[in-house]
């Protein structure tokens, strides 16, 4: 298969982790006889520095022409601490989502057996957790009208949703639930918010089209608690933009590190793949950023094009790296010097040599002297 992939490394740790994902994709192309071409674009704080625009026109054009977009991370503390900044890096990411109409964001939350002890939660609570969060990505309070009064003392952000916006992400979530355990949980705040009541109405109207799916509801505050005390009860979670942002980051506690969470954002015409973690500027260029979320985003990209064996190879490589403790310091209690690049090299090597023994991998990648 030929794929033209736009690569937007962005800010902070974005470039280092994205480089590992590109490495994995190049190895996949070589092993499975595909032709993947990559074209880089500027976005975020780095784009502001170079062009005064967090989302240059050229970047949007690269994305529009591409079959898929691989995104790194966005943000910079110098903007985070300045509430008066008119131009912000995040406008780059939000602009891409809106301009390419990437309305449905899918975030898998999977508890890996090899990492259960890394979570601050109890193993018996989190073992076998496997959740898909369907987050609406181009509406709600993120994109509603924003106002600041002239005297600067009153501000508002409108949370607005249309039936159409709810329907398209809801259909996708129902279909996902149908193909899984058949349970869909709508998370909202329908006891308070009018927009949430519209979500309930629309989702209830779609329910009869999916007789195999059991639909239930949770208010966001209650869902935030249930997700931690009993995550296994969930199969597919459907929710609006901001609740999905918060819940998915909370869910990283189950998995053990936010450095593991990947995502897909899709619309009718375009698809983007990105880790859910941020730019973590203070960790940039130290070789400590976990590249797995980015590498797993590359696996989601392959799934999107039906390249399931290829995606599985990447995931097996990730599993193996976790098993052999070839992981960055956020997860590693055994070795203290495994860098971002080293994890990427390991997974690249696994893609080429999946049948190598554990011992060989350990010897090669941990620098032990004898290669059996
Ligand atoms: C995410 C991020 C973004 C969001 C930020 C960087 C704008 O937190 O993708 O979860 O809030 O959507
Ligand atoms: Mg977030």
Could you explain how this protein is built, in words?
The protein has 14 helices and twelve strands. The chain has helices spanning 14-32, 45-51, 57-65, 77-80, 90-99, 123-126, 163-179, 194-206, 220-229, 241-255, 292-304, 308-323, 340-352, 358-365; strands spanning 2-10, 35-40, 68-73, 104-110, 130-136, 146-148, 155-157, 183-188, 214-219, 236-239, 262-266, 271-275. The strands form two sheets. It has a ten-stranded mixed sheet with strand order 2-1-3-12-11-4-5-10-8-9, sandwiched between helices. A two-stranded antiparallel sheet has the order 6-7. The longest helix is centred in the N-terminal third of the chain and has 19 residues, at 14-32. Helix 1 crosses helix 11 (292-304), helix 1 runs parallel beside helix 13 (340-352) and helix 11 packs antiparallel against helix 12. It is α/β, with parallel strands linked by helices and 372 residues long. It has two domains: 1-102 and 267-372, Isopropylmalate Dehydrogenase, CATH 3.40.718; 111-256, Isopropylmalate Dehydrogenase (3-Layer(aba) Sandwich). The protein is globular, with a radius of gyration of 21 Å. It binds 3-isopropylmalic acid and magnesium ion (MG). The site of 3-isopropylmalic acid has 7 residues, from helix 5. This is 3-isopropylmalate dehydrogenase. One of its GO terms (cellular component) is cytosol. One of its GO terms (molecular function) is metal ion binding. One of its GO terms (biological process) is L-leucine biosynthetic process. Residues 4-347 form the Isopropylmalate dehydrogenase-like domain.
